[in-house]
Amino acid sequence: MKFDLDIEDWETITRADLVFEDLSTIGSSYALRVFFNNKKATAKTKRTAKNGYAGRLTIFGHGDCLGSEGHCSSASKMDVRLDAPAMPVLQHPTAPMKRILTVTPALDRVMRRYSKGLHTVTLVTVLQAPLRKKRKPMSGLLKCRRVSLRTYS
């Protein structure tokens, strides 16, 4: 993923978030590792500041749908009885969600280290199998509509 982030007043940023919108949880669980300005990062890349490591999200997958047609659709109705009228309405467990990864310290390091600022964000997905020896890098796990970098001053 390419970025052209050259903020002249980057020192005024008090918080920076990578926002993953409409993230799907249908499928396997996985770890999403984020690296700044390291387009060669892989699952074997050490998670250090020197390597541009910015953080990680762990996504709990709900597995593949095994129910009847429409069972796993977030548009299907949930049979939920709530006795208290003030209870919030529950979302379907497979409804697309928003996940936020705060990357403020990593962005600060990149902006201080590179004269051109942040230019690449590498997302590495690692299958989170129950047995550690079966955990491996796998493409196609991350499914979301949009990833954006939001900064706050």
Q: What can you tell me about this protein's structure?
A:
The protein has 153 residues and is mainly beta. It is 7% helix and 33% strand. It has one helix and seven strands, in the order E-E-E-E-E-H-E-E. The strands form two sheets. A four-stranded antiparallel beta sheet has the order 1-6-3-4, with helices on one face. The two termini are 24 Å apart.
Based on the model shown, name its key terms:
153 residues; mainly beta; 3-stranded antiparallel β-sheet; 33% strand; globular
Report mean pLDDT, rounded to a whole number.
79
From the structure provided, what is the oligomeric state, counting identical versus distinct chains? single chain
In which order are the strands of the major sheet placed?
1-6-3-4
Number of distinct helices:
1
Q: How many β-strand stretches?
A: 7
Cα Rg? 18 Å
Would you spell out the secondary-structure blueprint of this structure?
Blueprint: E1 2-5, E2 15-23, E3 30-36, E4 53-59, E5 97-102, H1 104-113, E6 118-127, E7 146-152
Antiparallel strand pairs: 1-6, 2-5, 2-7, 3-4, 3-6
